[in-house]
Structures are given as structure tokens and as C-alpha cells.
Amino acid sequence: MAYRLQRLKAMSRFLPRVYSGIHLQQSGRPFSLNSSLLNLPLHACENTSKRFEQKVCDSKRFSTVLQISNGSPPVADVLSFIASTFNEPEGPDHYWLNKVALTKDFTERDGVFLVVAGAFLEDSANMFEKVKSLQQRYPSLPAMGFQFGSSLCSAANHTRLVQLIMTEYITFPLLLTNKDFTEMKNGAWYILFRGFSNPFVYNENNADLGTLSKAIKELHLAQNDTSGLVPNLKSSWMKQVEVIKEPDVCSSFRNLLLYFPGCISVDESGDRLFLSDSNHHRIMILDGGGKILDCIGSSPGFEDGVFESAKLMRPLASVYHAADNCLYFVDSENHAIRRAVLEKRMVETVYPTCTKKSSSLWTWILDKLGIERDFDMKLEETESSLVLPWHLIKSEDDNLYIINRSFEILWVLELPSGTMQEVFEGSSKIMEICGQIIVDKVSILRRMPSDWLQHQFDTNCSLKEIPCAGLLSSLASFQDHVIICDTVGQRILKLNKNSGLVSNFQLSNFGILGLPYWLSSSLERVYSSGEEICGADIHFESFTLLPGKIDIDLNVDIPKNAELLEPLQEGCVWCQVRGAAVEVPGTDKIEASTEKVGSAQQWYDNLDTLVFSTPEEECVEEENTISDCKLPEGRVQINCVVNTSPGTSEVFIDAALYLKLKRDSNLHDSQEKMAETMVDFLKPERHGRMRRGTCIQYLLKVKRDLEDLIFITPLRVRIKLDILNHPKADNSKDFVLTDSEIKVNISL
Q1: Which has the closest alpha carbon to 713: 510, 437, 553?
Q2: HSE on the CB side for 278, CA within 13 Å?
Q3: Are 371 and 353 in contact (CB under 8 A)?
Q4: Residue 506, Cβ density class (10 Å: 0-12 exposed, 13-18 middle, ≥19 buried)
Q5: What is the rounded CA–CA span in Å between residue 526 and residue 327?
Q6: Helix residue ranges per DSSP H, 577-670
Q7: Within the chain, how many helices (H) and strands (E) appear?
Q8: Could you give the CA distance from residue 255 to residue 299 in angstroms, rounded to a whole number?
């Protein structure tokens, strides 16, 4: 019996293994990694590849979907090559995009990982929908992309990838290599593994969500570990900063006024337009002349509330409901349908339903400590779950038709109750239900220039029967014009229905937008987490003064090749004081009598001023104030007043200046020179390591007048104040307060 068992064990080494119905082939002998690491510098893989090489050599699980050739299994080559590039953002054979998203999970944690290989330069909407659906089910599942091929070195392909990342909102890291892995061509491949060994490999043809989800669970159960199936929540003495992943490689384009303006809807009776500035996570409310009236959303996230505090995550299509004076819109990356109550200026979640948190004191304390979420979301993995919605259509029976970007799923949501009625799959069913509505809406695009349409087709999914269906939510009829979102040129166009002329839809009143979220740096974020917001030059100044009131004047010089579009408004300036100082409101800058007056008497005096002043006097006073603040062309002044005490203080002043290139005859003749000048302002090398040449090529690709492209130039000033002790008065009992003035000159 012992001899038979020994022979059986010996034979088993040459037999394939079977796991959960998947036929897996075993390699007969260890393989060499030398062929997969051609021309890589030794220091690039000295630390990382040694740790992973043994794990990959021990791999014994490969799907028979792959055509295994003689020599090294192709998946092992892929995993070993990926492992060798972790320590180098760029090498002879590779280049990382979104590298900031490559966390320690890939290098130090023995967990389950997902690699999506190939098909990034093809029609890959379905691939990204699958990946994001898996990350919705398993939020702690690390994912990365892998694209190979000798043609990746071209500037055209780099530009295509930047547009793809911007359109699909790819937040996971993407590894590019000019090496060829011929066995893994023919579409997208999904590689699931744990600890860079024993991978499950699926081609896009047999990789449905159920199969991939089952493989993830099996990899966790193999180690009796389910920690990766739930979010990794941390708790400490300080409130955890909410971490939102954004496409790092495209983050320099956040400083454009519009960053992927994806969708638009209108309220003709109210002379309002609702523009989804999708990658800025906000919805602008405009009037017919382009003036910004209001803004829905403050920053990326998922939170209901007033417009200034509500958080959205890539809003897209919207529909105005006149009866309720509400705007229903798609919150795509949150997989939700939200509602903006315009009269109350409140954002609510319609689907999925939310359970609002308790208003008790204990709940408030837990929330401040970062232990409890803002609300509990009731998400169920059912067929009716909403995943990555994109388009929104209002039906005749007052329901909402919700369609995903690839036109493969249609959800029917009942408006009064917010319940999901039905779910239809397949483009044929969508054509049957919504085909005529789509045809009627996009038919006007026949009058648009063919070259512009071709640019949009390259970045939008459509139905075979309706080539322009992907632009369904990107256009709206408004009075005598058709308003169209140009997601490639980052602008809004208007088509005159009568003349057929196409022109830019100019926006104004930028102060309503306030200081952008990526420029604001609250003290809690800067000092508690030790992180600074990158992407802007920080101007440091230091002064030693006596205690008292300090008037700080910042004189900012605009670059000679740019012009300021509008005077700087208060909403675009953020000021905060730290230490032994406090900011004084702007009204306190007015000189007052030295006689001490009680606070109650001051309140009555202010009330008398309001009562006895006429509207005409107020208007004249306001006009005079504005006229007095006029400065020479090319200069902006910011004033801040603080009261100080002995000790050390710091004043933080951030501002957003809206500029555009100054019309220059020397630049106007060369589009390339204008693109280079624009890149000097965007500074892509500080945002995700985007190559300067790639950014220039992208700006040239948009085929628009770059002199009309509005961008934000951030201003960041840090002033350190060392305040001496109070000087004594003549009677040696009272303290003397000194009024000081500081002038700081800054050139952008």
C-alpha cells in the first residue's frame, strides 16, 4: 500500500490540477525570468523582483484559455515584468501612468489583486464597466492596467491614452510597455491573483461579473481570509481624511475652467442651463448668456446637503422636472441618481435609498472622530443595482430611463417613489424602448462639421443603429440654438438653428464657483495628515512685528502673456490664520472712532445706518468702493487684516485667478507656440508626471483656438509672523497695541 501511494504521488506531479471547474495546466520545470526582463537596469528590480521572482516561479495555476507555448508561461512573464517595474516610474521598456495610485497594497500586502491587460486602445467601455463594478462590490480590491505593444512609444497613442483616462475616469495605475506579449492579444484579459502567484486568467469573451466575483471569493477563501471583501477602515485619535481617487496623470487639466464638460440640460421657461462639469464634480447653473448663477457640488465624494457642502462624484446626464422645480441627475461614480431641489438649494439622493444618520450628540462625536460614516447606504447585489449610469431620459409617464455608457443596460426608475421598476439588457431592447427618442434628439448633429463629429465619436460609445447616440446627453435645444458639450476641446459650443453657424458659448461670473476644492488646504488636512496640496508655487514670507492689528496687502503681478478675465472676487480667495492671531472681518478695516463703545451700542448704530440710508446712497457707496479698488492693468491686490498677540502665527492665503492667453501676433501665427505657452501655465510635470510633450500634443489635438481657453492660475501664500512682547505704557500698567502694515509683492 505504501508503495502504491508513493507511485500515485509521483504520477500526480505530471497531471493537470482542477480548481472549481477551471482546467489549469502545470509547468513541468521551473522557468527563467531572463527573457521577460530584457534591457532592464539592475537597480530597477534589485529589491522588488527578488521578492516576487520566487512567488512567480512557484505558480501552478494557469487558465487553459491561454495558448501556452513552449518555454515560460505568458502570465508568469507578465507578472514578473510588472513586479520588476514598481521601483521605477519610467524605464527603457516601461512607463507608469497614474503612478500615485500604486499604493503599498501591491508591494507589501499579501492580498487579492486584479490586472487588466490589453485593449486600452480599442473600444474598451465594457472592460472599464466590469472593473468598476468589481471595485464597487469589493472597495479594497487593488486594480491596475497593463498595455503592451511597440506602437505605444508614439505621441499619438500617448495622447489617446490621456483622453481615454479623462473620459473613462481611470483612477488605477496603468503600466505601459513597448514589449510584446503576443499570447495575450485578442481583446482584454483579466488576471486575478494573490501574492503574485497562482493566477486566474480570463479573456473578455468568458469573463462575466459572476465568474470574476467567484474567483475573487475563492482566492480569499483559499487563505481563510475575508478582510479584502470589506473596506479597510482605520481608526485613530484624529479624524481620517476622506481619500478620493482621481486620475493623477490628467490632474493638470483640473486647472482648466471646464474639465470634461460631459452633459447639459435646459429649463427654457426659466432661461437656465445645467452644465455637468463632470471631472470637476459639479453642476453649473447658467443663464442664456453664459453667466454662472449657482453651482451644485463642492468636491468629490458622496454627501447630501446644501449646494456648497454637497459632494458628487462625476455627475453626468441631467433632466429638469418643471413641476417640482428639481434637477434629477446621474451621479455616475457613486452609482446613484441624485436630485437638486433648486428652491431650497439642497441635494438629495433618490436611488439607492439612504438611511440618514442620527442627529444625537454621540453620533456627532463619532463622525468627528472619523469612526462613523455620514450615512449608511443600503446596497444590495441584485439585478436592479445601478452600476455606472451615464444617460438620463424622462419618459412620457414621468419615469426616468437610465442607460449606461455602453448602451447595454436600461434601468427604469419611478420618480414619485424612487423605486426601480425594471431592468433591460441588450442594445436591441434599448432601441425598442428609447430608439425614437434618441434619434429625434441627435438628428440636429447632422449640421455640425464632420471633423468635429469624428473627434467626438472617438471618445463616445454609440449604438450601431445610431452612430451619434453617444452624444445623447451632451446636447440640448435652447431657444434658437443647440448647446453642445465638446469633451475633447473642454468647451461649450452653440449651433445657430437658422444660420448653422457654430460658435463658443462664453461663460462669466467665475466668482460663484469659489475656490476650487483641489486648491483649498484646510489646516486639518495640512497639519494632521502631513500632506500638502501640490501643483502650485508656494510663496513664503516672514516678518517680525509688534502685537496689534496688521494690515496685509498682497500685490500680485499677472504674467505678461496672460490677461485676467474678471476682477478677483471674494469667493475665490481663502484666508485662514493659525497660532497667536485671528482674522479680522473686512468691515473692521474701516477707520472708527477711538472712543470705546459697547457691542450692543455698535449693533444699534449699525441698525440705524441700515434704516436711514437710502438704496440710492448704498448703490453710490458700492460703486465708489469698486472704483477705488481699480489697479493698473496686469495687477491684482488682496487685503487681509489680522489681530496678533505675542508668539508665532501663520497666515494662509489661497486664491484662484481666471486667466487666458493674451492675444499676441507672434503667438497667433503658431499653434504650437500657444500650446507650449499654455503648458507653461498648466505645469503637467507637477501633476502625475505627465510628459510635457504629451500635454502639448493633446492641446494641439483639440483643434480649437487656444487663446480662448480659460484656465486657473493658483496663488498660494504663507506668511509667518513672529510677534514680540507687548511694549509697556508710560504708567507701566497698560499694554500698547501697534498698528502695522505689510506689503508683499508676488509675480506669478
Answers
A1: 510
A2: 30
A3: no
A4: middle
A5: 35
A6: 599-612, 615-628, 665-668
A7: 17, 36
A8: 14
- How many angstroms separate the CA atoms of 624 and 635, rounded? 20
DSSP 412: E
Q: Mean pLDDT for each consecutive 10-residue tract of the chain (748 residues)?
A: 50 39 35 32 38 39 39 72 83 81 58 86 81 88 87 77 90 88 82 85 87 88 55 38 74 92 95 97 96 94 93 96 95 95 95 66 63 45 73 92 93 89 92 92 81 67 77 92 92 91 93 87 43 64 92 92 89 89 63 40 51 43 39 82 92 93 70 88 67 85 87 92 84 76 90
Position of cell 420618480? 415
The phi, psi pair for 283, rounded to 5°, reads: -125, 120
Strand, coil or helix: 68: coil
3-class DSSP string for 317-365:
EEEEECCCCEEEEEEHHHCEEEEEECCCCEEEEEECCEEECCCCHHHHH
Q: CA distances (Å), 588 to each of 571, 626, 736, in order? A: 19, 18, 19
- Take residue 305 and report the three cell numbers written for it: 446637503
Name the β-bridge partners of 548.
644
Helix (H) or strand (E) holding 634: none
CA–CA distance, 523 with 521 (Å, rounded to integer): 6
Residue 114 to residues 105, 439, 464, Cα–Cα distance (Å): 12, 39, 31
Q: Give the span between the Cα atoms of 27 and 56, in whole angstroms.
A: 12
Residue 638: other Cβ atoms inside 10 A? 20
C-alpha cell at 136: 464597487
Alpha helices per DSSP H over 138-221: 155-168, 209-221
Pairing state of beta strands 143-148 and 174-177? parallel
